[in-house]
Amino acid sequence: MFPHYVGEFIGAFADECSMVSRSLEKMLLIAIGLTSVVIVGIPVLFHTLNTISAASNFTMANDFADRVHNATGRVDSGTTDSVSIEISVPDYVTITVSNDTMTILYEPTDGSSQEWTREYSHEIVLTAPNDSGSHLLAIDLIGDKIHLEFIALN
Length: 154
Fold this sequence. Notes:
Oligomer: single chain
């Protein structure tokens, strides 16, 4: 019917099509896998970055509160009459005073909050920072009051 070589050609062509089909299947599976990784991975990556950022912001607020309270405590205890430090006021931090009590509040947009409150033996007068960023914090004992003044450096 057909010459011998035509049958071999058709058989070889069928094998070649089968190999191309398997290669296409592999490429399609790889494409689906990569798409799945991107669809699932990107939101997980963003969530991880937000978590790390929130932890970093909290750590900065905690360090800020420690430095302010420790410096104020040195003046309050009489170790020194005045302290000046360069300090970075973190985002989401507010400072309030009521007579001899100072409260530093960290309240990010996620609804959580943390406050660091300390009572001193002197009344506190505060000139609070207007915004976050680098400030010079001057703490002075004037009469029987501790004056805290945040002066923006930027």
